[in-house]
Write a structure and sequence with these properties.
The structure holds two protein chains of two kinds. Chain A is mainly beta. Chain A has a domain of 96 residues: Protocatechuate 3,4-Dioxygenase, subunit A. Chain A contains three helices and eight strands. In chain A, the strands form two sheets. In chain A, strands 3-2-5-6 form a four-stranded antiparallel sheet, with no helix packed on it. Chain B has a single domain, classed as Sandwich (Protocatechuate 3,4-Dioxygenase, subunit A). Chain B has three helices and twelve strands. In chain B, the strands form three sheets. In chain B, strands 2, 5, 10, 11 and 12 form a five-stranded mixed sheet that branches. Chain B has a four-stranded antiparallel sheet with strand order 4-3-8-9, with no helix packed on it. In chain B, strand 6 and strand 7 form a beta hairpin. Classes of the chains: A mainly beta, B mainly beta. Strand 8 of chain A pairs parallel with strand 1 of chain B, so a sheet runs across the interface.
Chain lengths: 173, 222
């Protein structure tokens, strides 16, 4: 039996964020930003967002990714961590990942916050990948287009709604 | 059921934050069975002795907290990044949002990080955190706890939890602790006092093993 999860609570700011945590690359990147909202539509100013992604070729820096034909990039880990600010906003400076076929390019997201007894998983997909998105196993498995839309960034903005009619599609990983 | 109920209305902050729509089942893919591997300064500095971070020694009861990080099948997790943060002996966090009128200790920040060794073992030296009041309900107090954050070998085995101390009288009144409905699972969040870990004339020792969630061995679609 595994150790149960507990909330990250409101006081993680001096423990988890680290300098440069929101920058996955130094240059030639894109800024992806978003706001976390609660069920009343209020911004969540004490959330922590973590991302994990493949590099621009679609390769993860991890021994389980054995696709040697795809290059690794020096210095690119693929992990980022950013606390939301007083406006509930987070931001990451990164590269758009390549596709990991059959999956469309996406960034994996963890949401931690006071009030979340277990962290949440979601994914950021990209609006300019219509064809790949249509073939993506997760996106194509979602029947309700409104729910599917919650996983696709608008330009480079990805808002997260924790609850309610506009709730982001969270994943039971 | 090992995990806490996401919807635990007794814990007030869940009411507007816990998702109320069903989660989508996602068979593990490469995205879930991979995850950050420590070994780059971009992930922060290691520091497992919280009593040596300032000029003087912090006040309170010095303790050693040690244990193993294990996969669900009992294998040790090597090189797991373990991060902790906690309040001081008086029950006060250094965080600016903590308004509890208990003293800040200028010699204690309360954050540490380490990596597990080849046997999955971690070790922190710190100060026993105090209990503190919070605004959840009338006369609400959190049992003493240390926050833990862990990365195993995969994004899907990420764990953020809290370690509690044995015999705390506040357990039965704490909706966060009680959000784990199964009593046996709650026990897994409580460290064990250990005389062998205790260092004579210096510090009490606690042992706490952490078991990460299982993960599927290979991506479903491969």
């Amino acid at each position: 039996m595994s150790t149960p999860s507990q909330t990250v609570g409101p006081f993680f700011a001096f423990g988890l964020p680290f300098e440069g945590g929101e920058r996955l690359v130094e240059e030639d990147g894109i800024w992806i930003t978003g706001t976390v909202y609660d069920g009343a539509g209020e911004p969540v100013h004490d959330a922590l967002i973590e991302i994990w992604q493949a590099n621009r070729y679609g390769r993860y820096r991890h021994p389980e990714d054995t696709r040697e034909e795809l290059p690794l990039e020096d210095g690119f880990i693929g992990f980022g961590r950013c606390a939301t600010d007083e406006n509930g906003e987070f931001r990451f400076y990164t590269v758009k990942p390549g596709a990991t076929a059959p999956h469309a390019p996406h960034i994996n997201v963890i949401v931690l916050a006071r009030g979340l007894l277990r962290h949440l998983y979601t994914r950021i997909y990209f609006p300019d990948e219509e064809e790949a998105n249509a073939a993506d196993p997760l996106l194509s498995s979602i029947e309700d287009p409104a729910v599917r839309e919650t996983l696709i960034a608008r330009d480079l903005r990805f808002d997260i709604h924790l609850q309610g009619e506009r709730q982001t599609a969270f994943l039971d990983v | 059921m090992t995990e806490p109920d996401r919807n635990t209305p007794e814990y007030k902050s869940t009411r507007l934050r816990a998702p109320d729509r069903p989660l989508l089942i996602l068979p593990n893919t490469l995205s879930e069975i991979t995850g950050p591997v420590y070994g780059h300064e971009r992930m922060g500095r290691l520091d497992n002795d919280l009593t040596q971070q300032h000029d003087g020694e912090p006040l309170g009861e010095r303790i050693i907290v040690s244990g193993r990080v294990l996969e669900s099948d009992g294998r040790p997790v090597r090189n797991a990044l373990v991060e902790i943060w906690q309040c001081n002996a008086a029950g006060r966090y250094i965080h600016k949002a903590d308004q509890h009128p208990a003293p800040i200790d200028p010699n204690f920040t309360g954050a540490g990080r380490t990596l597990t060794d080849d046997e999955g073992r971690y070790r922190f030296i710190t100060i026993k955190p105090g209990a503190y009041p919070w605004g959840n309900h009338e006369n609400a107090w959190r049992p003493a706890h240390i926050h833990f954050s862990l990365f195993g070998s995969a994004f899907s085995t990420r764990l953020v939890t809290q370690m509690y101390f044995p015999g705390d009288p506040l357990f039965e009144f704490d909706p966060i602790f009680q959000s784990v409905r199964d009593p046996q699972s709650r026990e897994r969040m409580i460290a064990r006092f250990d005389l062998d870990t205790t260092t004579p004339e210096w510090a009490l020792g606690y042992q706490w093993d952490i078991v990460l969630r299982g993960r599927e061995a290979t991506p479903m679609e491969d």
